[in-house]
Every structure is written in structure tokens, then in C-alpha cells.
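Q: What does the assembled structure look like for these inputs?
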Amino acid sequence: MTGQLRPLRRLAANITGHGIALLARLITAVRAEWRGADPVPRQRVYYANHVSNADMPMIWAVLPPNLRRHVRPVAAADYWLKTPLRAFVGPEVFNCVLVDRRPDRDGSTGDPLDNILAALNDGASLILFPEGNRNMTEDPLLPFKAGLYNIARACPQVDLVPTWVANLTEVMPKGEVIPLPLMTTVIFGEPVHLQEGEDKDAFLERAARALVQLKPEDHAP
Amino acid sequence: MLLFLGTCGLLLVLTMIGEGLRARYAPGGDNPEIETYMTRVHSWWAMVLLVSLALLTGKVGVLVLFGFASLAALREFLTLTYKRQADHTTLALAFYVVLPLQYVFVGLGWQGLYTVFIPVYAFLLLPVFTALRGDADRFLARVAETQWGLMIAVYCASHVPALLKLQFDGVAMDRGVLLIAFLVMVVQFGDLLDFFFGRRIGRTRIVPDLSPRTWEGLVCGTASAMLIGAALAWLTPFGVPGAMLMAGAASLSGHFGALVFAAIKRDKGVKDWSHLIPGQGGVLNQLDSVLFAAPVFYHLTHLVWAV
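A:
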């Protein structure tokens, strides 16, 4: 990439970003519900349930622009570097923090936590999916990976905000191609922090409970 | 044009009544009855402007307006139904094929098709696509809810622009536009006055557990709708007595339609269908009575007056 092209690329990334946010609003009328936290520019880790590739753009779209500028989604390097288009959308439009889900393989970028902590030290907020993978089960959440606990221990001053993305399983279940225009809501709960003397399992369970509590009731007959 | 000015005048009077009441009884805007009345009047301002804009751009404008209203209504309805992954193809077909096709058929004026497309063809075909995916969990409830959503949000809604396609003996072609205005006005004002009288003199609730609507409000609302119908008879080919009866029938089915929607909302545990219109709920909240009235009005007109 030459020097003259960079501003153009940034402009394209900016336009694409607004386009994605607009599309999310048009199709799903996505709406933020700030239940336990206010939309203020504090350093936060928004940790969310993960059922589809559209989760991250939804959270990103409902954040007010002044918050969005400082938010970096944590995403899998193997997914976002696969094609040139993804390499543009992931790192440049969303400004993703790329982590290697298989650090033992060749070409590894090292401990995934290093990139995350570096981003937090730069003052960025994060969007994180602590389940590590998309949840395909009937359970509301998969067991959390250790990442959230490690972040809470390394950066105790950062608010960990539980973020429930409601109704997206129906909009675009895993394996489907066409998204349905159903309404979605992103619910932000009360921030959690690591308590003194709390061990990893207890903390992760408490964080998961705070997230599941935000889940709206089913409309099952 | 006369009609548009008349409507604006009427809305102006209603707005002033509301402002007057507000100034007299609750200057701080803390009387919930007056505030609800005012939000409704404001929503009619928006609706009248939107519909007028559509009517000015002609029949295509009306079709596009109701097409998007259908999309928004179907989206609100199907968001609250029970779904499984096996419903995905069916729902995609409902949104992206059935809905646009219904409006294309209405636009082409193929009456033999648009009156049976959803109740017959979509009704038979869509469950097939669900069954092909092989998930039988609460199957009947799932296909029934989808079909109900299509009937109410697409089939019923499309009967408003379908009025454009009716033809009458020795009457100019643009009668349909005026019929739409007649239908929407008698139903909506009937609804508004039902609310108003219900709050003022209402004693006996129709269904106490479900809705604050009262028999007194219903009777006064329908009677007012009939009077409005008589006053607007010049818009229609019905004549004054006919216009009163049609207004009464449309308004009555609208009132009971709103009751049915109250039951659905209660079942689904929501107060409003969505938050699309700030402070006033969703598109379905606004349209519920018109949706119930439209097919009845269409078919009565077709049976008695159209050629």
C-alpha cells in the first residue's frame, strides 16, 4: 500500500462503517437499552453473548459515535485475515484487536492476552465474547474462557459491562445465508469487577450470571 | 385538496381542544389522559402528512407506503413469535417473496389473485417449507403464528391500497383514493373518540382483564364514526345512508380488532409492539384498527357498489 492510498482507505473504512451501522438499523431496528450502565465514555470491556457473526456489528452499531471511536472488538485472526475483504473490514473498519485462537501453531503472534492488554493500556475499550466461540446449543451461554478473568485481574480499574444481544439467533442462525428483518435489542447491564480474594471459577460464574440475567423472556407458546 | 384542507382543519380543532384542556386542567402536562389524547392527535398529524404525500405521488406512492407499513408491521409481529432455525426459509419467503408479491398483485389489479394469494397459496406452501426442514417441535404453533402475521400485517394491510382497484358505475377512476381517505378517517376518528368518550363517560368495561375500553366508548365512538361517515359521504359512491352504515361497520370491526390485538399483546407479555415511533409504540399499535377494518370495508364495497 502506497502513502497516497492510505487516506482513501481510511475514508473507505469510515464510509463502510457508517454503512454497516445504517444497515443494521434499517434491517433490525436495533436499539440500545442502557439498563445498568450509562452511555458515557469510560474505559470498558463490553462482554457479550455470541450466537452469530452479526453480534459484534450490532453492539458496534448501537454505541454512540463518540464511544464507538474508542471501542475495539476482540476477534479471531484466523477468521478476519482469511480474505482481503475481511482483512479490510475487520482490522480497518472495526479496528479489531486480532487474537490467535491457536497460538501453538506456526506463525503464531504469541499469547492472545498480550494484544488485548496492549489495547487496554492504549486506553481503548473492548468488545469481547468470553465464550470464545459461537454458541450453537440451546443453553443461553457456553462456559466462559479464562480471558475475561485475566483481563479483570490485570486491569482492575476497567468496567466489565455485561452486554446481552437479544433475538439475533432468529435473525441469522449459524449456517443461514439470508438475514431476516426481525427487531433486535442490545441490553447493557451493571458493570462487574473482580472482588478481593475471588478465584477464577467464582468470578467467571458471577460474570456469566450477570450476563444471563439480562436475557429477555422467551415468547414460547 | 378540499379533503386535505378539511382534515388539517379538523386536526387543528382537535389539537386546540387538547391544548385548551391541558391549559385548563393540567398546565404542567401531568394529566395522563390529556397527554395520551395529545400524543394520538400528534401521531395523526404525522400520518395525515405521510398519506397526503403518498396520495400526491399517485397509486404507486400509496402502494409503496403500505408496502413499507406492512414490512414494519410484519417485523414487529414475527419478532414476538416462537421461532426455530427450521423456520428460517419460511420466514425469509414471507418477508422477501410473499409480501412484495402481494403488493405487486394489488398493483397489477389481479383481484382473483390478491384476494386468495395469502389465505390459500401462502397458507398451503409455507408450512411445506417448514416441514421439509424436519423439526416438529411445536410445529403447528409455529406455522400458525407465521400465517397469522402474514394475514394481519400483509393481507389485511394490502386491502387499503386495493381500494384503488375497485371500479364503480359512471364514476371517475380516482374514487379509490377518496375511499382510502374515507376508511382511514372514519376508523381513526372513531378510535380516537372511543378513547375520548370512554375516559369521560365510560363505566362498563367490555373485557375488564384485557383492555380499558368500555361499552359506552364503543357505542359513542361508532356513532361518531357514523356521523363523520355521513359528513364525508360526498367522498364515496355510497350515498348518505350507505356511507353511515359503511362507516359504522368499519369502525365497529376496528374497535373489536383493537381488542384482539390487546389479547395478543397480553399473551406475549408486552405493552407495545415495538419502540419504532418514539413514545407511541410500534406501527402495529397505530394500525391495529385499520387492519381489521380494511378487508371488511373492501369486501362490502365490492359486494354492494362495485361493478
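Chain B is about 75% helix and 0% strand.
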